[in-house]
């Protein structure tokens, strides 16, 4: 199929989708087996991840090559922009589910569990956040906001700034500055993740705060955990963009690969701010 | 088979397209992917239908006949999940794949490879659901809404269901992003938003709802998974959580989901009625605004599914009034369809029959919905067969009838062949008769107090249940006729005329030959 720049790029038949589906088949079945202590589960999860990473690698490699060989015209570029925007909206809604759970517990279920009607069921239970709930005897210390989390907030905000500097550099074709600011963004992201790991160790070892510590433990670890996962994905994407920049990809006018990752990075930033306020501060 | 074979080779574009099975596995063509979606949906419709036949066979007489209660629960659960996620949603996405690019003058979907991935995730998820019947403990048995604490208790089958829902969600989100991007970015020059066909409008709004609520479902099942295996307390009151929290998050997804399954049906009917009434769609812009209002309102009505779990009266009133408000834009649509037919030069081919059947029966389902929205009545009919009757009137005679209508309407364009009109009419009238036989009596059963999801019932319900079961078997058998009509149309139908429906005005009829070529609109048409 000849593709000149006036036509919308429609790719050739591709093996990537079916490879991805095979990966998710192994991953889903393997995870279900593993959680039910059925032996080959671990192997299936490992195989699934291996195939998935292979698929992601060859798929994005192909997209980069197509982009660099000039197959994507202006309309394709706009498609990528719409696609990324809606993807980020879907991510916002994913986090909204967990924030919704946090608000519901604090505003509704906790006061209800401590009201007069429930005093027969849970005598002496008081609605004080943080709580492990009336039926879980764990005692733990709450994660303070002004230690590590405050430092992490500063790190992520700074990484948003360095990411913007990198964006300015790419638009003004200052490639060395671009690489430097990208590296700085990656470094801040990795540092954030390191501190987040340290915080988890601190929570388990010193504060007795666990995933099983009732409402507080569940929401704390699930919200920060999913955020940390997204930061990890963001760092990987930034690293890929760094190597693409280092091998001369992107131009001052045409660099949506970079911009899409920058959008994602800012989104992860904003989620963290919400986390800092609602999980750590309040 | 010779004809189909020749057809494949007829598209020699001189490029190295794989043939045989690999053509379908590796395809990036929106028509191929649409076809796969439709066949997949049809096979899942029969899997889910078989489960329904099992349920109705058990309920044919009081007492336990053929299904043990545990297996009966698995049947009702998987019937719901497979019909919603495996049959109705993929079928509409199949229509979107075929029709949206052709109706807006685009060469293909915006992300052609991702489009194929959206499809190929479905068989993976479906295999999880089917495998779950054969694992120790059996399939999920807590109802298709998988409320905790029941769903926290089940075994491996529940985990397989959770991962199936994750994968189906990923598929839907990718499909929705693809459709939105295609519609927003790839319309032919001159086709402004307010010139788009109604089917495209309804899918734009549906895709928006999908992006909004599918991630919430993913979050819910993730919480369920961690509650089951990793000791979190989201839905555990002893840990400060609440099982009712699950219901809130689930229905925040679940109610918009209902509109995800009906808005594209509105779109299909809005294409067919003007064609066979040979008039323009009455009140086009009010149709667009009504669709958008329904989508917006649908995000604020979720708690009407849970009036009986206990909530403040203010909450009940809010959700009751919001729910009743949805009847206003829906009424606008019904009146617009009726006004389109008013003084039209009407003919009654099969697509039109199914569309009129749709309006007639969907209105019944809509009204029983308003009845269920009234809190004092809902408290009476919650979890009874009245609710079953209500949502089958909107999902079977609503969504499914519109799907049939769309299939008959567009199959000449897709294959270049006509279906057998006589058999099509038989399919409609038999479906109409048996559908009402099955589900109308369930209103009476529900009002008399027969609970849903129970394999046995008191003796006074016996007669109506027998009637309902006979209707269900008839309805199931009738659908085999549909498969016969479609397969014989594809294989050996009469060649279709260039424009089989003289009243059709959308691009796929006016600007493309019949059958539509493998690659359409490589150069966009200009819309005046």
What does this molecule look like?
The complex is a heterodimer of chains A (282) and B (528). Chain A has helices at residues 16-35, 41-68, 74-113, 148-171, 175-205, 214-246, 256-281. Chain A is mainly alpha-helical and 282 residues long. Chain A is globular. Chain B is an all-alpha fold. Chain B has a single domain, classed as Cytochrome C Oxidase, Chain A (Up-down Bundle). Helix content of chain B is 70%, strand content 1%. Chain B has 17 helices and 2 strands. Chain B has helices at 2-9, 21-26, 30-58, 69-104, 112-131, 150-153, 156-185, 198-229, 243-277, 284-298, 313-341, 350-373, 375-381, 385-415, 421-447, 462-492, 507-510; strands at 417-418, 494-495. In chain B, strands 1-2 form a two-stranded antiparallel sheet. In chain B, helix 4 (69-104) packs parallel to helix 7, helix 4 packs across helix 9 and helix 9 runs antiparallel to helix 12 (350-373). The longest helix of chain B is centred in the N-terminal third of the chain and has 36 residues, at 69-104. The radius of gyration of chain B is 23 Å and the shape is globular. Chains A and B meet through helix 1, helix 3 and helix 6 of A and helix 2, helix 5, helix 7, helix 8 and helix 9 of B.
What is the compact description of this entry?
Chain A has 282 residues and is mainly α.
Compile the SSE list and pairings:
The complex is a heterodimer of chains A (282) and B (528).
Chain A: H1 16-35, H2 41-68, H3 74-113, H4 148-171, H5 175-205, H6 214-246, H7 256-281
Helix pairs in contact in A: 1-2, 3-6, 3-7, 4-5, 4-7, 5-6, 6-7
Chain B: H1 2-9, H2 21-26, H3 30-58, H4 69-104, H5 112-131, H6 150-153, H7 156-185, H8 198-229, H9 243-277, H10 284-298, H11 313-341, H12 350-373, H13 375-381, H14 385-415, E1 417-418, H15 421-447, H16 462-492, E2 494-495, H17 507-510
């Amino acid at each position: 199929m000849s593709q000149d720049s006036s036509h919308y790029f429609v790719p050739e038949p591709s093996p990537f989708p079916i490879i991805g589906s095979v990966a998710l088949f192994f991953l889903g079945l393997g995870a279900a087996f593993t959680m039910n202590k059925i032996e080959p589960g671990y192997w299936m999860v490992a195989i699934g991840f291996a195939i998935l990473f292979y698929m992601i690698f060859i798929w994005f490699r192909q997209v980069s090559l197509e982009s660099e060989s000039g197959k994507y015209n202006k309309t394709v570029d706009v498609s990528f922009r719409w696609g990324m925007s809606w993807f980020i909206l879907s991510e916002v809604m994913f986090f909204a589910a967990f924030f919704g759970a946090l608000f519901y517990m604090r505003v509704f279920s906790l006061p209800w569990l401590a009201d007069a009607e429930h005093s027969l069921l849970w005598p002496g239970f008081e609605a004080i956040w943080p709580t492990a709930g009336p039926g879980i005897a764990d005692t733990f210390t709450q994660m303070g906001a002004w230690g590590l989390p405050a430092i992490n907030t500063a790190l992520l905000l700074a990484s948003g700034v360095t990411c913007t500097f990198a964006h300015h550099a790419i638009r003004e074709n200052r490639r060395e500055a671009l690489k430097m600011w990208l590296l700085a963004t990656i470094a801040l992201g990795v540092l954030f993740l390191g501190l987040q790991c340290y915080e988890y160790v601190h929570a388990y070892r010193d504060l007795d705060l666990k995933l099983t510590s009732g409402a507080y433990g569940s929401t704390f670890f699930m919200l920060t955990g999913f955020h940390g996962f997204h930061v990890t994905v963001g760092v990987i994407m930034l690293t890929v963009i760094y190597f693409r920049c280092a091998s001369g990809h992107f131009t001052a006018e045409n660099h949506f690969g970079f911009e899409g990752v920058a959008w994602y990075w800012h989104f992860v930033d904003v989620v963290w701010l919400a986390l800092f306020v609602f999980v750590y501060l309040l | 088979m010779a004809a189909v074979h020749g057809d494949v080779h007829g598209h020699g574009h001189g490029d190295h397209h794989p043939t045989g099975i690999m053509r379908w596995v590796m395809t990036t063509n929106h028509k191929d992917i649409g076809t796969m979606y439709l066949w997949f949906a049809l096979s899942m419709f029969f899997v889910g239908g078989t489960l329904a036949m099992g349920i109705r066979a058990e309920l044919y007489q009081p007492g336990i006949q053929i299904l043990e209660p545990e297996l009966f629960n698995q049947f009702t659960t998987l019937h719901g999940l497979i019909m919603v996620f495996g049959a109705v949603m993929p079928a509409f996405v199949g229509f979107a794949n075929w029709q949206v690019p052709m109706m807006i003058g685009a060469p293909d979907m915006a992300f052609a490879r991702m489009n194929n991935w959206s499809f190929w995730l479905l068989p993976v998820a479906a295999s999880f659901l089917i495998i779950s019947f054969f694992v120790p403990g059996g399939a999920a048995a807590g109802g298709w809404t998988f409320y905790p604490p029941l769903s926290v208790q089940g075994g491996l089958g529940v985990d397989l269901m959770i991962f199936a829902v994750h994968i189906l969600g990923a598929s839907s989100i990718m499909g929705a992003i693809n459709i939105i991007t295609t519609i927003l970015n790839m319309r032919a020059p001159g086709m402004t938003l307010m010139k788009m066909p109604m089917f495209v409008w309804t899918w734009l709004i549906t895709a928006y709802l999908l992006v909004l609520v599918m991630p919430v479902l993913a979050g819910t099942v993730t919480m369920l998974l961690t509650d089951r295996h990793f000791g979190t307390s989201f839905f555990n009151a002893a840990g400060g959580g609440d099982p009712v929290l699950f219901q809130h998050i689930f229905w925040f997804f679940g109610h918009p989901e209902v509109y995800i399954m009906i808005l594209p049906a509105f779109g299909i009917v809005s294409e067919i009625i003007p064609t066979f009434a040979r008039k323009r769609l009455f009140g086009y812009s009010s149709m667009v605004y009504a669709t958008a209002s329904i989508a917006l309102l649908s995000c604020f009505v979720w708690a009407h599914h849970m009036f009986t779990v206990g909530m403040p009266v203010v909450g009940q009133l809010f959700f009751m009034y919001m729910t009743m408000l949805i009847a206003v834009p829906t009424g606008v649509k019904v009146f617009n369809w009726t006004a389109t037919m008013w003084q039209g030069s009407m003919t009654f081919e099969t697509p039109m029959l199914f569309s009129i059947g749709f309006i007639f029966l969907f209105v019944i389902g809509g009204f029983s919905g308003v009845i269920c929205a009234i809190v004092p009545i809902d408290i009476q009919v919650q979890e009874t067969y009245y609710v079953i009757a209500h949502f089958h009137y909107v999902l079977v005679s609503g969504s499914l009838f519109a799907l049939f209508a769309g299939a008959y309407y567009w199959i000449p364009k897709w294959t270049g062949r006509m279906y057998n009109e006589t058999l099509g009419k038989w399919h409609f009238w038999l479906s109409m008769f048996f559908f009402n036989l099955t589900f109308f009596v369930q209103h009476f059963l529900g009002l008399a107090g027969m609970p849903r999801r129970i394999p046995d019932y008191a003796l006074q319900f016996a007669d109506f249940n027998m009637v309902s079961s006979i209707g269900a078997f008839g309805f199931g058998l009738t659908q085999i006729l549909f498969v016969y009509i479609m397969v014989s149309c594809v294989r050996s139908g009469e060649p279709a005329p260039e424009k089989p429906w003289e009243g059709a005005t959308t691009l796929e009829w006016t600007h493309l030959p019949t059958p539509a070529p493998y690659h359409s609109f490589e150069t966009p048409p200009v819309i005046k």
